[in-house]
Amino acid sequence: MHSRGSGFFDFSFTTLTLGNLLNGLLFFSTPSRAMEWSSLVIAALLLLDMVIVLAVQRLRSEEGWVGIASVIWATVMALYNVMSDRVVAWGKQEEEERLTGRKETRRTLREWCAVLTATVIMIVMIVITIFLTATLILRSRDASLKPPGERFYVDGDKYKLHLACVGNATFDAHGKKNPTVLVEAGEMPFEDTMDDWIYSSYHNGTIDRYCYYDRPGFAWSDNAPSPHSAGMTSDALSEALARAGEEGPWVLVSAGVGSIYSRIFSSRHVRDVHGLFLIDGLHEDLLHRIASPTRGFILWGRGIISPLGYDRLFGAIFKGRTREDRVYGKSAYQAGKFIKAKLQENLVAGSLTKNEVSQARNIQTPNTPLVIVSSGIEVRRDNEWERKQEDLTKITDNLVSWDVVNRAPHRIWLTLEGRTILEKRLGELVRAR
Description:
By secondary structure, the chain is α/β, with parallel strands linked by helices. The chain has helices spanning 8-26, 33-55, 57-100, 109-142, 195-203, 230-244, 258-267, 293-305, 310-318, 323-327, 336-363, 376-381, 383-392, 416-431, and strands at residues 150-154, 159-166, 180-184, 210-213, 250-255, 273-279, 369-375, 398-405.
């Protein structure tokens, strides 16, 4: 039953169909022109949705057979409602002409109330269907944006993970391969957050090569089956790297919650990891902050209404948001795929993921070079965050440096001082042996 998309569209089409059928049953005995035309509009919009889903390969693969069946069923049932309304109206007219010799045009107050209620409900359903259709059109537009790297099947070919590498492998004077920087983004996709300063480090010659990927549900990567923990993501990354023919040694660079993923990956590739670089990383003892039930409920609610795409449509029409913004940029958090990924993260953060990162701490080799760079703003604002940042300096016995960038926010690279320190420390870590 797993689909490579969010699954929220399937739910939306199913709910819309049930509402359409229920409305038809409740007001079956009072057909009207308004009902007939409203049903026809909904059927036409759903037919367009079906064509879009079937025609766009990326949408077809993301929705899977469940999503395709949902939109087809919604279309067929909408057409059925149109036909049934027409048949009932024809039957009533025949009966009235047989009994009275003419078509009855008068209605009782109760019938007028029923017609009014049904019409209002149908207008609401038309608005919902218009939003669904407009969002599908946006998604089809976004699907045309090509990824900078490649997408590889992982986890028994259940979904695809996006992986990209920049630069060529280099070797030192002794013929040993220099480390490749493997970047793990934080709370948002890499392309809109860390890409600028990492590419700047590459352009300046600080590093020779780097690779990055999108976690499941982020940017060009599909959603993974549920439940899905950080360790499962690390395994998927390992598989994608193997399929791409990429080999270590690695220097792992991560930010925020991405540090959890990097530490687990490091513990499972101890021979290949030559350095850990954590940028204001999340400590395992603070995973409860992203595992709270309230946050999970809010994410679920956002996911349910995400197919309407009102925020994405508003951004596209009035704020000039582009497909880049929606796929990996400032509007990426509004996508159903992204919301599902965050919901999956929330559901297992305090259980599976916490166990995996706790085990990773025990497995991690003590001589691995470690660099920690912390946000001065976060450290001053949150005493617990400061204590946990200090504790992160002890995950190995080989601390190269720990910097607290005084005026930097959580995304340390947004300040000039932060970028300067990050690039300097990254160069030192890559050259450390």
